[in-house]
């Protein structure tokens, strides 16, 4: 099976199934030809694990075809790359193999932010892939449009990712562990290079942390039976690409000494991601409502189209993440932070 064309869409785009087209990690449907998990009634799986748990949605849709148009979201992440790679391998093999199943399971751990805090970041596939992404040519070229840039970056990420996924699938097929395994990276020049980038990224995190806001507060528990204390960190324009992973392992810089479980980050103007880690046992349900209220007020004053924040309303995320509207928020960082403070004040006393 050959890839005829790559297409990269905005997050949250609704896509109907089409002949010869396979849509992954975007589309908001789980039907033959479209495998996504971001809808409210979606399964508690990521796109890659959906490929291995529902292979007929890929096989039956593309049976007999020699070419496929693959569609995913812009700036494809580990899950999007893994889902695309596994779909093509599934079409080659006609069945799910052990290595494919293990790779899909690992992608689910990564996409749900469930990588254990004890896992070494230089000995796990996820961080090596993101380190390799850092070597992709500059964000924009002279005269390049935004769409052309998204296409170039997306295709490059897929090429780099497929090369790595192939090695990890083969290793998993022979019984190698994927979660944490230094043997996966020894003797491979590309992996040694990406491992060094991961190590160097810790210095960037240390710099981010020095200028960050941080504190400790209470959040509601997933089961709804009470409140639990968590440490939070807010960083604007972080230099570290592994910010959330280093923060979760920051046992010396976090107020409690247990690492930061709630991360607020903004890569650029209009962009925000607020997320609490699964192992904290907490959620952010209600924060999206407050942000949407303030966002609507701002957009009505400025005559801008009404757009909503994503509040993590799916079985996979369970209200653990909140993200800016498609196209960006009009709220300033200070307004987002004030809304966050309003939210946690409504839950209980703010410790710091």
Topology at a glance:
Elements: E1 2-9, E2 21-24, E3 30-31, E4 34-35, H1 47-53, H2 56-62, E5 67-73, H3 78-93, H4 98-111, H5 125-133, H6 146-173, H7 189-210, E6 213-220, E7 227-236, H8 243-248, E8 262-266, E9 273-276, H9 287-302, E10 321-323, H10 333-347
Parallel strand pairs: 1-5, 2-4, 2-5, 7-8
Antiparallel strand pairs: 3-4, 6-7, 8-9, 9-10
Low-confidence stretches: none
Shape: globular
How many structural domains in the coordinates? 2
- How would you classify the helix and strand content by structural class? alpha/beta
Beta-strand proportion: 15-25%
The whole-number mean of residue pLDDT values reads 94
Task: Write a concise synopsis of the structure shown.
By secondary structure, this protein is of the alpha/beta class.
